[in-house]
Design a protein that fits this description.
With 325 residues, the protein is an all-beta fold. It contains two helices and 22 strands. Strands 1-19-16-21-14-13-12 form a seven-stranded antiparallel β-sheet. Strands 2-3-10-5-8-11 form a six-stranded antiparallel β-sheet, with no helix packed on it.
Length: 325
């Protein structure tokens, strides 16, 4: 490991575990008409290029956030239904990249809506160490490049890409080839309780992992991080990292690359058949070459390897119990 990698620190925020909505608080970044319900926002974690937040929209509430050539905004619907300007309704599992017109989403239903909000910045205008959603203006700088196109939605009905003999399912929600993203990409990961990731690093992209379900340990540079539901991990570029599962429960996580690019390696296999059972996808089939290894073929016992860039070794335990942050 290089001195540069050792000197880099992961940004780790352990958010409220179990029910995230029970600890949401009101912070800035949201606008509501007088007399209407107010959205509740909570920053789950941030790093120099990415801020991830939870937004709870009661019936009748509306949330807005500015965008610019330097600031890109994604919204992912976790529970309930979200309504875009113009009346387009997004159901759970859909995501949208907003254009320069700004981000605006409301709840026209009779039930609460829960969203994940991803705000990504150009390397030219990074977030500070105490980033919040209390923004009235988005940064602008010619160094950020050209403007993005109009708002674009994740593909309706798109099936996840299956890896590691069915142990890992990857849903590419928003990326450059599909939705014209410029500063980040958004991916959802669903993995078995034994799927691990070998040590690797990304040359140009920072990576964010937010754990919704599952447990294990991540090695991030020289740090050992115990992850569980509610853990936010920010991994700077050029930082070696790996994941070793506990084996106790399946993994569900949201993943962001800033800028996007590394997520494209997951396109090496065909999407799962429509209607297939995630628990059975790929079971009994040979792993796709380059997409994983079967148990006993060099991976740690009971652990399948998932595709990486520049992998440096198989996943394995990264520390004794109690080690890490």
């Amino acid at each position: 490991m290089t001195a540069r990698a050792r000197s880099r620190l992961a940004w780790v925020v352990v958010a409220c575990a179990a029910v995230l909505s029970s600890c949401a608080s009101q912070q800035g970044g949201s606008l509501a008409a007088p007399g209407s319900a107010s959205p509740r926002t909570r920053v789950l974690g941030s790093g120099p290029r990415v801020l991830l937040a939870q937004v709870l929209l009661p019936p009748g509430a509306r949330f807005t956030l500015p965008t610019s050539v330097c600031q890109e905004v994604f919204v992912y619907v976790r529970h309930g239904a979200a309504e875009l300007d113009g009346g387009r309704v997004l159901l759970p599992g859909r995501a949208v990249r907003f254009g320069l017109e700004g981000a605006a989403v409301g709840n026209g239903s009779s039930r609460d809506t829960e969203l994940y909000l991803v705000v990504s910045r150009s390397v030219a205008r990074r977030f500070g160490p105490d980033a919040t959603l209390d923004m009235q203006l988005a940064p602008s700088d010619p160094a950020c490049g050209e403007s993005a196109g109009a708002a674009a939605l994740s593909e309706l009905g798109a099936q996840p890409f299956v890896h590691a003999g069915g142990e890992l399912r990857v849903s590419l929600l928003l990326d450059g080839p599909g939705q014209g993203t410029r500063h980040a990409s958004l991916t959802r990961l669903d993995a078995s309780a034994t799927a691990g990731v070998p040590l690797h690093e990304h040359e140009e992209s920072a990576e964010v992992i937010f754990i919704e379900q599952g447990e294990g340990r991540m090695r991030v540079g020289d740090q050992l991080v115990a992850v569980r539901p509610g853990t936010f991990v920010y991994i700077p570029p050029h930082t070696p990292h790996s994941f070793s599962p506990s084996g106790n429960s399946p993994l569900q996580a949201v993943q962001v690359y800033a800028p996007g690019g590394p997520e494209q390696r997951f396109r090496v296999t065909a999407p799962a058949p429509t209607g297939s059972d995630p628990a059975q996808a790929g079971v009994g089939a040979e792993p796709t070459p380059g997409a994983g290894s079967a148990p006993g073929s060099g991976a740690s016992a009971g652990t399948w390897q998932v595709p990486t860039e520049g992998a440096e070794g198989a996943a394995g335990p990264v520390g004794a119990p109690g080690a890490g942050s």
